[in-house]
Design goal:
single chain, alpha/beta, Rossmann fold, two-stranded antiparallel sheet, binds pyrazine-2-carboxylic acid, binds zinc ion
Length: 205
């Protein structure tokens, strides 16, 4: 059994062109991710999944606009347009993503009062999603990350994975970024400093 897994982050309609929080070229990750899905035995998907009254939505803070930052009880939180509302079409995976061989979907950000960029811990950096336990139970030691967005959910997930001791890489041609106020460069630096491999071409297991 392979000890590596492909972790496909948030390839959902709302992060693709035409979606509520569209990432430039977000849909262009689908083809390279499908290619890698065919090369891996272990596939895990994540799905951003928020209640309509979620704390990360600017519309739920009086007078606030999307992409501003606010201070919450767990720290700074960027406010976003409402996106990935649970059970909405925007929360669905892109229709061309090959989800058939995925063994597990981790939903995150489902609690009203806390966001979760990372697939491992919510934004208080301590509430676990359960993914680490699942991977430990399956003896998975190595993670390859791809998806949306490079500088938010992919980076936060990769940084937590590295902290938890996984051998971690991200595959840039299968990622696209939001790039808010230099966030892409900042997070690429953070990932390099955490010994995360930044791959420039597609990889296999
Ligand atoms: C994401 C912002 C808000 C992401 C999710 O998937 O990177 N970014 N929610
Ligand atoms: Zn979100």
């Amino acid at each position: 059994m392979s000890q590596s897994a492909l972790l496909v982050i948030d390839v959902q309609n709302d992060f693709c062109p035409g979606g509520a929080l569209a990432v430039a070229e977000g849909d262009q990750v689908v083809a390279p991710i499908n290619t890698m899905i065919d090369r891996f035995e272990n596939i895990i998907l994540t799905q951003d999944w928020h209640p309509a009254n979620h704390v990360s939505f600017a519309s739920n803070h009086e007078g606030a606009s999307p992409f501003e930052s606010v201070s919450l009880n767990y720290g700074e939180q960027t406010l976003w347009p409402p996106h990935c509302v649970a059970a909405s079409d925007g929360a669905n995976f892109h229709s061309n993503l090959n989800t058939n061989s995925a063994q597990m979907t981790v939903r995150k950000g489902f609690r009203e009062n806390i966001d979760s960029y990372s697939a491992f811990f919510e934004n208080d950096q301590s509430t676990p999603t359960g993914l680490h336990g699942y991977l430990q139970d399956r003896s998975i030691k190595k993670l390859v990350l791809c998806g949306l967005a490079t500088d938010y959910c992919v980076a936060w997930s990769a940084l937590d994975a590295a902290k938890l001791g996984y051998e971690t890489s991200i595959v840039l041609p299968a990622c696209r970024a939001i790039d808010l106020a230099g966030s892409l460069d900042h997070q690429i630096n953070n990932m390099r400093n955490a010994n995360i491999a930044i791959e420039e071409s597609l990889v296999g297991s």
